[in-house]
């Protein structure tokens, strides 16, 4: 039986302190779906201001922003990502049996940044767990641009590689735009190419790939029954990797979106008016509890390693959002870690699988839930 999304009822905070419970009941996906996010073209409707506004009736979902909250619910990205990865593993196994091939991901890592090494290690491990083949090219910090382009060229020409990932950020002496533009459109599973972003922006268009982090954020909102259409959303940060595509994707889902950046005057006034706040500014603890209206949904994209000798790896992670304050105001919030990060990796795997399906002409359940 397929369960409808529902949000658990709240309980008063214990006098000894705030205890945040994870939401236990999230919709189980039907057997023919991997992702719940629909195709973007299927969302397109005409903006006709003369017609009855009620003619468009979005799917009925619980509106988490209208409830009366005392403590935020946790949006468990780790749990959702594990479900998605399990379905991807099943599909990869079916692909291998059917066409004797599996998705291949080619990764390029430049330098020895601690965070980049962690991210790449986690992505390669995730590939192994779902049966995706991965290759890694590691180059030194002082490598030349032509060395990077040669590695990209080899991946572009390798028919067993269906997706290419260049781990960012790059050293300052390398031109990010030139390197990313060298990735084949059909293998750009990060979705950073201007053509993908252009198709994301335009009605009636469907990009080959949607950037992984924004795609994962939308998937979380949908799976937790949080209404996007008609809501007010604020995106903090306007990077090409997260902020810009997040703005475009929310708009395609019919939210009214404001973008907050370093030059925005009184940013807290804008975010305080938002039903959904997505922070991708890259500044730890930027978003305070006073920036949020009661019951808002908070998606924290920030990941900042802070040295902490008491932790196993010598550091702990902070987000863009001051969690201790936000959790007392928001209706729902993603934790750091365990929120957006696992979903980003899951979306990378789903994009790689989709790329391989196109290459092999493999038919079966589409990642967005329909059969090809």
| SSE order, one letter for each helix or strand | EHEHEHEHHHEHEHEEEEHEH
The CATH superfamily title of the domain at 59-75 and 208-342: NAD(P)-binding Rossmann-like Domain
What's the overall average pLDDT, rounded? 87
Shape: globular
The portion of residues assigned to helices is: 25-40%
Question: Which secondary-structure class do the elements indicate?
Answer: alpha/beta
Widest beta sheet: strand line-up: 1-11-8-7-5-6
CATH fold-level label of the domain at 59-75 and 208-342: Rossmann fold
Number of strands: 11
SS strand fraction: 5-15%
Count of individual helical segments: 10
Q: What is the CATH-assigned architecture of the domain at 59-75 and 208-342?
A: 3-Layer(aba) Sandwich
For the sheet with most strands, the description reads: 6 strands, parallel
Q: Spans of 5+ residues with little confidence (pLDDT < 50)?
A: 1-29, 51-69
The rounded distance between the terminal residues' Cα atoms is 25 Å
CATH class of the domain at 59-75 and 208-342: Alpha Beta
Rg, nearest Å: 21 Å
């Amino acid at each position: 039986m397929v369960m409808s999304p529902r949000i658990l009822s709240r309980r008063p905070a214990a006098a000894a302190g705030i205890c945040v419970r994870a939401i236990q009941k999230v919709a189980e996906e039907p057997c023919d779906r991997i992702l719940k996010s629909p195709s973007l073209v299927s969302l397109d409707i005409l903006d006709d201001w003369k017609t009855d506004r009620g003619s468009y009736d979005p799917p009925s979902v619980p509106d988490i922003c209208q409830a009366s909250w005392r403590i935020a619910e946790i949006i468990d990205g780790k749990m959702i990502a594990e479900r998605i990865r399990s379905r991807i593993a099943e599909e990869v196994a079916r692909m291998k049996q059917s066409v004797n091939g599996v998705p291949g991901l080619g990764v390029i890592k430049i330098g020895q940044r601690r965070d980049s090494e962690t991210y790449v290690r986690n992505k390669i491990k995730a590939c192994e767990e779902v049966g995706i083949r991965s290759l890694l090219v590691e180059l030194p910090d002082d490598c030349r641009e032509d060395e990077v382009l040669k590695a990209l060229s080899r991946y572009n020409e390798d028919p067993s590689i269906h997706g290419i990932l260049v781990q960012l950020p790059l050293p300052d002496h390398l031109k990010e735009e030139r390197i990313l533009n060298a990735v084949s459109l059909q293998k750009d599973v990060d979705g950073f190419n201007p053509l993908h972003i252009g198709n994301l922006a335009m009605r009636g268009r469907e990009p080959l790939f949607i950037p992984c982090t924004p795609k994962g954020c939308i998937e979380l909102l949908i799976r937790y029954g949080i209404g996007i259409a008609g809501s007010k959303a604020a995106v903090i940060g306007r990077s090409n990797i997260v902020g810009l595509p997040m703005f475009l994707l929310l708009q395609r889902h019919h939210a009214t979106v404001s973008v907050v950046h370093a030059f925005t005057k009184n940013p807290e006034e804008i975010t305080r008016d938002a039903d959904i706040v997505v922070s991708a500014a890259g500044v730890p603890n930027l978003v305070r509890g006073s920036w949020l209206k009661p019951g808002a949904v908070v998606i924290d994209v920030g990941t900042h390693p802070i040295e902490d000798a008491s932790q196993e790896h010598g550091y702990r992670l902070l987000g863009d959002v001051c969690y201790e304050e936000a959790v007392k105001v928001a209706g729902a919030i993603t934790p750091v870690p365990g929120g957006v990060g696992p979903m980003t990796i899951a979306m990378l795997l789903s994009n790689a699988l989709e790329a391989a399906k196109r290459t092999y002409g493999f038919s079966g359940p589409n990642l967005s839930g329909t059969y090809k």
